[in-house]
Amino acid sequence: xxxxxxxxxQPADEVMDMPERRTALxxxxxAAKARMVxxxxxxxxxxxxxxxxxxxxxxxxxxxxxxxxMTITDLTGTGARELLARLFANDVDKxxxxxxxxxxxxxxxxxxxxxxxxxxxxSGYRVVSNAATCEKVxxxxxxxxGGFDVAVHERRDLALIAVQGPNAxxxxxxxxxxxxxxxxxxxxxxQNGWMVARTGYTGEDGVEVALPNDQAVALWQRLSNAGVAxxxxxxxxxxxxxxxxLLYGQDMDxxxxxxxxxxxxxxxxxxxxxxFVGREALARQRSRGPERVLRGVVLAGxxxxxxxxxxxxxxxxxxxxxGIFSPTLGYSIGFARLPRGATGxxxxxxxxxxxxxxxxxxxxxRQGKQVFK
Length: 373
Known about the structure:
Elements: H1 12-15, H2 26-31, E1 35-39, E2 42-47, H3 51-60, E3 63-66, E4 71-76, H4 80-87, E5 100-106, E6 112-121, E7 124-129, H5 134-145, E8 151-154, E9 158-164, H6 168-176, E10 188-191, E11 194-197, E12 206-212, H7 216-225, E13 229-230, H8 233-242, H9 279-288, E14 292-299, E15 310-313, E16 316-325, E17 332-339, E18 345-350, E19 353-360, E20 365-366, E21 369-370
Parallel strand pairs: 3-13
Antiparallel strand pairs: 1-2, 3-9, 4-7, 4-8, 5-6, 6-7, 9-12, 10-11, 11-12, 14-17, 14-19, 15-16, 15-18, 16-17, 18-19, 20-21
Helix pairs in contact: 3-8, 6-7
């Protein structure tokens, strides 16, 4: 069986000196005999036994993830919209109350500080960003907030649970008596201190719910009783890559722009007078076209695509940014940053051998079926 370690995983002896934080569900994970590993300063469940079974649970029925390590930040005040219009490359007005929008925060050179989801609320906005970028994003928001009437409030009092899969909505509704079946994609509903949003990171339908830490264990247990299987970070990684979703720090970072990371669709260029951070540098790159682009790759032979492997194409060399063995497809897939004109067949260096592969357009899987061409 191919090795299915996540793209980001490091053996414990490489990170043993990192301080570890614990989510409100930590004791429950340990009791369930989850394999706990360090991730972005947190002790998180890698799997609960079989990461392949967890992957298939999500693709075929419903699975739940503890994603409380993500950073939830609330922005309030009359200047909240203006702050996000300055920092968020997408159109913040798409995040009307009860709506959500995905996009990126850029630095002055057009590099990606982080990819985030912005939720519109009656009282302002909620920003959910990655665990590994917590301090960087909070500092970025706070530094720029000085010129606006806005308060930046990190919400470590909240847990975050993702319920994903074709049966996720009905299972969540059964477990909570909160009907979410009619909740639209990228919509959110707030009730009794909970925010339930129809968003996720697996390519399947489902919800992500932010709720007080002291209510997280009870929700997890009710979801389990409703037949939702726990899933760890390993399955989350294989699911997101099959779905063509990017991982910050590998598929994009501060040295790569959205145009180089298949995220040009997240940049709102209108109105022309909106001067968001990074616009000038991004516009220059847009006018000439990026030299490197992110593409999907699939392996024709045996082996597993991994970050850092060399890729040879008809337009020159590139590098794998993320790679896994796909449990759904039965062979290896990944992302690679390649010269702009690269197409067709390629060679991927795996253990000093050049293995035939092919350049494709993600996503790889939708609703359990191959969709790439």
